[in-house]
Design the sequence.
């Protein structure tokens, strides 16, 4: 009592800790507390009350009678803090079953407040007391008799009913409504109490809350039930959390909402969701029939091959030949000889002289690919090798266009015809090395096509060689003052192919190669401009280096007045067309590159930029960079160019860009201008304008992959747009206009050529699938935007009217503004819905969110987190329609297939959660998907280990795979599905094949993290049959592989792995004994030696003897520089039995402790080794080898001579002469060893 008050307060607060550590002090603590219960000092009295509360919380009160009198006196105290602790103490006593809830409720009714369901008197109390009462009232959920539980809780006790009623009325009382809390000065305090109310309510079951299934099924808006109160509580709670910008995760409101929505699902089952978006089966069938009928009508009006071929026969030229080539797959030629005669003789001869226009060249290259695909399709029984030989012979005769034909033929072959593809590739490579090509243009076309085929076959060895060749071509053109469109085009389609190959984008070297190609193209753009060249050159350098940029980085260009000046118009068309084809690569590397390029393109003059804008706009729309306002602005830009009478080239390619924008803003305006331009009126429109108008007209009804603009990849065929299926008249009109232009001899040559080629493209569309996924590249773009999120939210299915589920879905839909720290509507709603069986529409929303960039924003990270948790929850639901399950299974497969850079950019801090949930995803993937994605995930995690030196994702992935292996037999976790034998076998093989990559991580990860990764990997290996793992036990790999193998052998030996033998363990010891000490990382050998030594404790006597003798033989050969003595020291310590319980030291992670234990074993090793050797009856062998080592290692250090001296002294009682000789040798080697 004589101590200062603050010291007494501190001592009182330490009582619970003292009681936990020494329960015998309980009596003295109670005696001491009794002195403070009625203490005149309020602070000390509060400390006593809080101490009793802590004792009750920790269940340290032996007898309630020790404190009940004190607590009753506290309840009537005038100090609110003391009452607060008293009520909480009673709460904890009920929780620990020391007191009955009903009894405490009566005590509170008598001493604090009358609890009868009314809440008016509550607000006369202090906020602290209200909080304590609310917490206590949440304990009533356990107040249900066992008899009532057996009767399925058909009745609820009066105390529970009063508690729930009080909490409900308190939650919807005026002080705790959203508006009141927002306007309150102490809003944080009110918010805290409201959170406790939600938490207390969430502890009650649905029956205790006063709702049942019939109440939900028969719900009507005018019903006055507890269900209505609970809905109001949830709505008001959400409004409070939203207005304050608070996160709902882990709160009582989330638990309460989840409990109520789950009960709604249980009551309503499938009727919970109103599937308004679904159409009836008859409606679907009708729609399908209508589309099929429309397609048949369209095919009839499209030009046939015979018409195109007849035009060629009447007017042989490169354009008519190219047109026939484009639709050649529709040729009705059944004879192989006739086919070769038409294709390789007639058409090829007229294609030797081509147009000098880049636009026509691009179309012709694509037409070659389309035409050559007919060759191997015409006769299933023909010998491909003979056909290839005829192509090779033709190529020798016509070295110009023949090489292109050969390359196009190889590109059309299936990827499994590797032999034929290799023959074609080798022939073309030899021709290039021996300079047999007539020109660089022909070489560029042929090599680019064969390189694309290699990429499709996931063979990337030729990519770098081709890029180097194209660079050399461009350098020669710069020196001669020319431009080579074909080289730029080749680079562009290679970049496009790389960016759409998931295998390529997982390799850093190919990703860097793609950026390098893009930098060459941007540099080419800078070189053909007359201004801002230096600024765009910097953009090219930034792309090559992979730097992050924004539009403001090129403000000098994007904010300049007027269009950029151009030095070479043809070069501009070449580069814009090439950039157009490479846009998917810009987007794959970095979306900011696409935005910058689009801004630069807007500043270019018409006459090339329309081609580029078509691609940047379309992929910008897909990726979310542009919205409806951009559409309107760009439409206005096109129309202003078309009506600008001051320009010499009045519209040029603006009409082509208008055809792209018209797909979104309406086709009527485009049709009006198209009709004007297709008229032969050279006074108002340039020649090139009419060419672009012809191509734009084709683009309005179908796709032109050779010019891209979002129209599919280069190797795809042209397709009719699904939107044109019902507009047969428009197609007929287009065909008639183009035929008129193509057959009119008075027409301009360029217009006739363009019309001929356009008719060929239209004819090739007779094979259209009307599948929009083939005409757009949506599936290739792994990004999303806010507008896409809004669209997916608006399309969310409706839930049953009047349910809490309906409120949560509507709350998500209403949150369509840009998410921010203060707007958490989507996040909070989804966190409450994630436990339900959600319709498949939610899968699309999860996909959009998970593949959204901007992970640096906390709100997006949180939204990604709850979407990923929800996705995993949906995958874990066992009973679900197959169609819905497929949608949810698709989303993680798309994410898993992202390249490492994109994966971590888009998934961000949720990567560990994703990897840790793989055991739920894999059983739901088909075997083919598993074969593709599991190696991809292992590569992704490896990249994180190498580049960021973090093992968290790798450890989570390996833990997840190990969980999958362990649970297959017992089916232990929720949502578990059995794996097929093929999938299981592949997983086991994939884990074993990953061993070299794991070993390489030793150079990147710190020791502790590498060891943790190894442990998880070894656990997976222990689940794999020995016939699969056998190949990794051979010491024939790299140093890192062998070192990791030591750890693996020791681990598996401890796990009693079926394939782990003593022979493997001994082989491991002998390998490490021959290694030289690593001065850089001494700890790693210490650890592995100790792990091996512990594993060797179980060896048989003869095996121990053999191992000791073998190590001494190695020591005799290698001397003291190897790890023989260290290994012997620890082995002797283990075998001698002196280690005992100290084995725990060997398993520790602290390097300093390991070193101390290691040196301790070195000091004791000689006597322990001698004792062990004597018991094994190999003491004479040890002595003789020790003498030989003395004689042959005169340069040994004193430390090792001391070691050998001890062995000799301990071993040579019967060998005195030899001992004297040993001492003499020792004194010669190091005079300081002995006195």
Sequence:
């Amino acid at each position: 009592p004589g101590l200062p008050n603050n010291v007494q307060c501190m001592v009182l607060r330490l009582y619970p800790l003292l009681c936990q550590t020494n329960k015998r002090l309980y009596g003295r603590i109670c005696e001491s507390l009794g002195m403070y219960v009625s203490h005149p000092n309020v602070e000390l009295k509060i400390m006593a009350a809080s101490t009793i509360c802590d004792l009750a919380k920790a269940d340290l009160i032996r007898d309630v009678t020790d404190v009940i009198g004190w607590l009753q006196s506290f309840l009537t105290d005038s100090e609110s803090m003391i009452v607060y602790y008293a009520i909480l103490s009673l709460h904890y006593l009920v929780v620990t079953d020391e007191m009955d809830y009903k009894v405490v409720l009566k005590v509170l009714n008598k001493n604090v407040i009358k609890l009868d369901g009314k809440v008016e008197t509550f607000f006369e109390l202090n906020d602290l007391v209200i909080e304590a009462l609310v917490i206590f009232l949440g304990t009533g959920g356990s107040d249900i008799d066992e008899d009532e539980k057996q009767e399925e809780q058909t009745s609820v006790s009066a105390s529970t009913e009063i508690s729930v009623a009080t909490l409900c009325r308190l939650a919807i009382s005026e002080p705790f409504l959203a508006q009141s809390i927002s306007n309150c000065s102490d809003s944080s305090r009110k918010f805290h109490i409201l959170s406790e109310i939600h938490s207390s309510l969430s502890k009650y079951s649905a029956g205790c809350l006063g709702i049942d299934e019939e109440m939900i099924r028969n719900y009507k808006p005018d019903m006055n039930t507890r269900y209505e109160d609970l809905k109001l509580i949830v709505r008001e709670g959400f409004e409070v959390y939203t207005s304050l910008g608070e996160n709902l995760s882990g709160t009582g409101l989330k638990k309460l909402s989840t409990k109520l929505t789950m009960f709604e699902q249980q009551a309503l089952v499938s009727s919970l969701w109103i599937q308004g978006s679904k159409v009836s089966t008859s409606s679907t069938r009708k729609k399908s029939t209508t589309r099929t009928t429309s397609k048949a009508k369209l095919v009839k009006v499209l030009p046939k091959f015979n018409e195109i071929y007849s035009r060629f026969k009447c007017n042989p030229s490169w354009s008519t030949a190219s047109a026939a080539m484009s639709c050649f797959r529709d040729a009705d030629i059944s004879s192989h000889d006739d086919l070769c005669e038409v294709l390789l003789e007639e058409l090829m001869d007229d294609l030797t002289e081509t147009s000098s226009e880049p636009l026509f060249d691009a179309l012709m290259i694509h037409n070659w690919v389309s035409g050559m695909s007919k060759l191997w399709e015409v006769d299933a029984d023909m010998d491909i090798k003979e056909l290839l030989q005829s192509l090779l012979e033709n190529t020798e005769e016509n070295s110009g266009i023949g090489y292109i034909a050969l390359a196009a033929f190889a590109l059309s072959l299936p990827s499994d015809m590797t032999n034929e593809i290799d023959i074609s590739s080798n022939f073309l490579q030899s021709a290039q090395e021996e300079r047999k090509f007539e020109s660089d243009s022909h070489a560029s076309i042929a090599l680019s096509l064969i390189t694309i085929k290699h990429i499709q076959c996931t063979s990337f060895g030729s990519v770098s060689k081709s890029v180097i060749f194209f660079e050399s071509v461009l350098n020669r053109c710069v020196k001669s003052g020319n431009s080579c469109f074909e080289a730029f085009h080749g680079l562009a389609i290679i970049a496009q192919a790389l960016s759409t190959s998931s295998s390529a984008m997982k390799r850093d070297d190919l990703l860097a190669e793609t950026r390098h190609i893009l930098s060459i193209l941007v540099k080419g753009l800078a070189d053909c401009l007359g201004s801002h060249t230096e600024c765009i050159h910097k953009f090219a350098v930034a792309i090559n280096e992979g730097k992050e940029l924004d539009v403001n980085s090129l403000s000098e260009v994007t904010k300049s007045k007027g269009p950029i000046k151009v030095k070479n118009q043809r070069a501009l068309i070449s580069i814009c067309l090439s950039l157009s084809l490479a846009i998917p690569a810009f987007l794959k590397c970095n979306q900011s590159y696409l935005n910058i390029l689009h801004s630069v393109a807007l500043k270019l003059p018409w006459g090339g930029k329309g081609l580029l804008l078509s691609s940047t706009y379309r992929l910008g729309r897909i990726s979310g960079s542009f919205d409806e306002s951009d559409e309107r602005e760009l439409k206005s830009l096109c129309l202003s160019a078309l009506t600008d009478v001051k320009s010499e080239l009045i519209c040029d390619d603006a009409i082509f860009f208008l055809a792209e924008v018209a797909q979104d803003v309406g086709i009527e305006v485009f049709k009006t201008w198209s009709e004007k331009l297709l008229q032969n009126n050279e006074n108002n429109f340039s020649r090139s304008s009419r060419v672009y108008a012809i191509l734009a007209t084709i683009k309005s009804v179908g796709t032109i992959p050779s010019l891209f603009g979002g129209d599919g990849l280069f190797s795809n065929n042209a397709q009719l747009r699904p939107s044109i299926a019902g507009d047969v008249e428009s197609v007929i009109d287009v065909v008639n206009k183009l035929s008129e232009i193509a057959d009119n001899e008075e027409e301009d040559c360029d217009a006739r050529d363009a019309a001929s080629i356009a008719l060929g493209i239209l004819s090739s569309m007779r094979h259209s699938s009307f599948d929009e996924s083939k005409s757009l590249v949506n599936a290739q773009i792994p990004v999303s935007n806010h507008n896409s999120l809004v669209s997916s939210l608006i399309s969310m299915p409706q839930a049953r009217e009047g349910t809490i589920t309906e409120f949560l879905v509507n709350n998500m839909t209403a949150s369509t503004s840009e998410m921010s720290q203060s707007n958490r509507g989507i996040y909070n709603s989804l966190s409450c819905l994630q436990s339900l069986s959600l319709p498949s529409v939610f899968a699309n929303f999860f996909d959009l969110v998970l593949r959204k960039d901007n992970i640096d924003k906390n709100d997006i990270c949180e939204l990604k987190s709850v979407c990923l948790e929800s996705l995993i929850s949906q995958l874990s639901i066992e009973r679900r329609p197959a169609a819905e399950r497929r949608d949810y299974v698709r989303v993680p497969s798309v994410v898993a297939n992202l390249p490492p850079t994109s994966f971590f950019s888009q998934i961000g801090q949720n990567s560990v959660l994703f990897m840790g949930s793989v055991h739920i995803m894999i059983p739901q993937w088909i075997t083919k998907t598993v074969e593709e994605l599991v190696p991809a995930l292992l590569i992704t995690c490896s990249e994180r280990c190498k580049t960021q030196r973090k093992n968290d994702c790798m450890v989570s992935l390996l833990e997840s795979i190990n969980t999958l292996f362990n649970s297959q037999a017992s089916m232990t976790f929720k949502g578990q599905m059995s794996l097929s034998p093929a999938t299981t076998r592949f997983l086991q093989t994939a884990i074993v094949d990953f061993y070299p990559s794991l070993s390489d991580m030793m150079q990147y990860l710190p020791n502790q993290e590498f060891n943790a990764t190894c442990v998880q990997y070894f656990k997976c290996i222990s689940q794999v049959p020995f016939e699969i793992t056998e190949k990794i036990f051979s010491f024939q790999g790299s140093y890192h592989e062998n070192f990791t193998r030591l750890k693996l052998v020791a681990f598996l030996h401890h796990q009693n792995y079926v394939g782990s033998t003593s022979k493997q363990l001994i082989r491991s010891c002998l390998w490490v004994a021959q290694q030289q000490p690593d001065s850089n990382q001494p700890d790693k050998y210490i650890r592995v030696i100790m792990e091996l030594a512990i594993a060797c404790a179980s060896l048989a006597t003869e095996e121990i003897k053999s191992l000791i003798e073998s190590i001494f033989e190695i020591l005799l050969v290698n001397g003291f520089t190897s790890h023989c003595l260290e290994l012997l020291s620890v082995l002797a310590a283990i075998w001698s039995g002196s280690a005992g319980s100290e084995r725990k030291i060997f398993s520790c992670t602290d390097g300093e402790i390991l070193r101390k234990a290691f040196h301790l074993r070195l000091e004791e090793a000689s006597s322990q080794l001698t004792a062990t050797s004597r018991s094994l009856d190999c003491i004479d062998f040890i002595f003789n080898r020790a003498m030989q080592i003395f004689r042959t290692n005169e340069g040994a250090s004193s430390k090792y001579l001391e070691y050998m001296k001890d062995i000799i002294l301990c071993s040579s009682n019967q060998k005195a002469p030899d001992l004297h000789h040993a001492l003499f040798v020792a004194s010669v080697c190091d005079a300081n060893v002995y006195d």
